[in-house]
Amino acid sequence: MMKISTTSSARLAKTPLLIIPVCAGDKPVLPTGVKTPAAFTAKFDGKARSTRVTFALGGPANQVLLIGLGDRNGVDLEGLRRCAAIASRQAEALGVDKATFSAEGLEDFDCGANAAGVAISEGAILGAYTFRQLKSKPVAAKCKAMVVCSDDGGLKKGLAQGRITAGGCAYARDLQNLPGNKLTPSEFAKRARKIAKDSTRLTCKVLDESAMAKLGMGLLLSVSQGSTQPAKMVHLTYKPKGRSKGRIALVGKGLTFDAGGLSIKPSSGMDEMRFDMSGGAAVLGAFHSLAHMDLPYEVHGILGCSENTIDGAATKPGDIFTAMNGLTVEVNNTDAEGRLVLADCLTYAARKVRPDTILDLATLTGAVIVGVGHELTGIFPSSETLRDELVASGLRVGEQCWPLPLLDVHKDGMKGKSGDLSNIGPPSLGAGSSQGAAFLSSFVPDSIDWCHLDIAGSAWNTAQRDWVGGATGSGVGVRLILDYLQTRA
Ligand code: BES
Ligand code: ZN
Ligand code: ZN
């Protein structure tokens, strides 16, 4: 991960690359001593994301890179993240081992100094993120460090916060990008244990299949009964330093591979189902960051880790299982497995944690991609407050959330013929994502404020935005959860 450090902007130290963000219409201001060809700073338009680079004629910097921020009044957090991401990517492309980023004046935008600092760290770190670990001879990143120049206390504090939040996001991306044979449910649980072991704030409990059977988690266990990989349920706990102001549970779908079961998926694109653990990755990524954060809440992370594959013991369509909360469920499509895993995790969260609020994150339905595409997370909040908080967090962190309906008609559609519930609704009902949410609602008591977040679109294959985008894991959810928790505090 790229190292971010800070220095005073008073005197520029020797650097192979100096990066200067420039607003549209402004003439680039070079630090004293930095000399470039006259034409370099002349007529640089400062258009958002435009760049210009030169070798310096003299002074402490060897090369100088200008990056446009666009119109001064339009600079927002996304603009700063993208600028910092372009900075770290260009530094890598230019082959320098470290770069200096001038953040002078960046504290003055409407978004505020602290948030600007967070955005610069996050943009630089996440922009430089590459998944390399599975190459036999991994080529390490050349540019390992960025020194950010600023004299603003708020901005500098933000830079440090952004290192922590970006670290959790990069960690989640690593988990996502691991294929099914490298990240099994057992490996997932092992990594959760390690994160807790390295922190004084966190504890971790892992339930194996026999422990889950004792609790009656028949739905979760049914999903991997056709797999050689045993299911695991992870329960992480973050305890605040002082008095706790409440309890929040984060529940993540951790399907390390989803072949669909006997209702098997088409082979084309099936490999993408290694990302079906993205909800679990988001929760574990958030805990990776929480280990370094001070929050006045008790936060619980519950990961339902499982593999949906087939052998002779696999669930047959029509099979009926009993959930931890006693409801019986007909599994009429074995590919609608995420809701089965989540159902028992939600009951576990409600009964064992007794939280005020539950957020669940899951790559639950292909339908959410039809509905809102890859740039948004579809959310099903049980209250207007929770809805507004998540929408606001999403806008701040660049992970937009869009509220979708969960109506009685969707709940009615999930009734079973022989069992209490069916895991799929009638095709004529449409609204597949709402059906999934409606199924889950039977496992969350009304007394708990709850939001289901369907990240099937936003977890990978998102548009290229410099710090995020492309066919690999986006790390969606980590920074959203952390912003939500921090704002609530
Ligand atoms: N993991 C999938 C959802 C998914 C599909 C995520 C495509 C990302 C991209 C989930 O387990 C699933 O298969 N859902 C089914 C539900 C259906 C059978 C009711 C789906 O969306 O088709
Ligand atoms: Zn599935
Ligand atoms: Zn799935």
Strand content: 15-25%
CATH superfamily of the largest domain: Zn peptidases
Number of strands: 17
Q: Overall pLDDT, averaged?
A: 98
**CATH secondary-structure class of the largest domain:** Alpha Beta
CATH third-tier fold name of the largest domain? Aminopeptidase
Radius of gyration: 24 Å
Query: What is the straight-line distance between the termini?
Result: 28 Å
Oligomerization status of the protein chains:
single chain
Shape: elongated
In the CATH hierarchy, what is the architecture of the largest domain at level 2? Answer: 3-Layer(aba) Sandwich
- Strand order in space, largest sheet: 7-8-10-9-13-17-14-15
| Largest sheet: number of strands, sense, barrel closure | 8 strands, mixed
Bound molecules: ligand BES, zinc ion
Unreliable stretches covering 5 or more consecutive residues: none
In DSSP terms, counting alpha (H) and pi (I) runs of 4 or more, how many helices?
14
